[in-house]
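Quick look at the format.
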Amino acid sequence: MTSAFTRLDLSSWFPRTQTILTLLFVAAVGVLLPVPGMAIMASAVVTSLMVSAPFLGDERGRLDTLYGVLPVSRRVVVLGRTLSLIAYYLAAAALATVVTVLSTMVRGGRVEPEFLLIAHAAALAFVGLSMALQLPVFFRIGYSRGRLMAYAPVFVVAGLAWLLQATGAHVQFGKAFEGLPLATIVGVGVLIGAIGIVCAILVSARLYRTREL
């Protein structure tokens, strides 16, 4: 049932111009910017911005009412939507990786696999935390009332980056990761992302269960 709803959800919002444009943006970042990891991080950023897209489609197409009469539980809706968003992220991350490797080769360089792993771990951590922040809000109050949450993860990260830079704490922050094994750094990023996604599902399912459709 969850896989069927995931396919239904993807068909309702994935094949849209907005989705294609965000993927093209990821590719453009990989081609135009010389920093290899930027496209991978861009895939995480656009995923956080796309979290609101299916909820906007729900309101425009009155799909919330449809979900209320379909023989599916609220938990299935939450799981299916989360999986559809993860599918988008994986598509964006795969595109970012291919463009990063190819553009670096064209420039005569080479991307180290270790660097790609770290970039993907950081991107997954950002996606997981973004979902934990956004999904419960959208499932509880919908897109119209919660649309500003679409930009919350980007603003939070930008604010933290500015604060670290302004206080000089970014130096100590960078030193904290020096000397750590690659497996530890990647593992921490993956763990943060996984915990964020699980928390998003659990909290969203609880809040969506009490929402009137």
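Next, a different chain entirely:
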Amino acid sequence: MKTTSFKAIYQGTGEDHGKSFTWKFYRDPKHGWSLTDYNGYERTLEKTWTDSLPVIRRILSNHGMTCPLS
């Protein structure tokens, strides 16, 4: 599957503040969208991109990161 990557910026405190981390995503025709974090952990998202965006934003927020996705 072809993946697309994006950089998310860590907003938390400590030495990683401001550091960018690479995340990847792809679409599986049968299962919908998937997101892979900077450690290689893969999460299954929603069937549509529109429904997956809030989930991605929540996951990034839980990791203390931000990224302007649309």
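The chain has one domain: 4-31+39-66.

See the schema section for token definitions.
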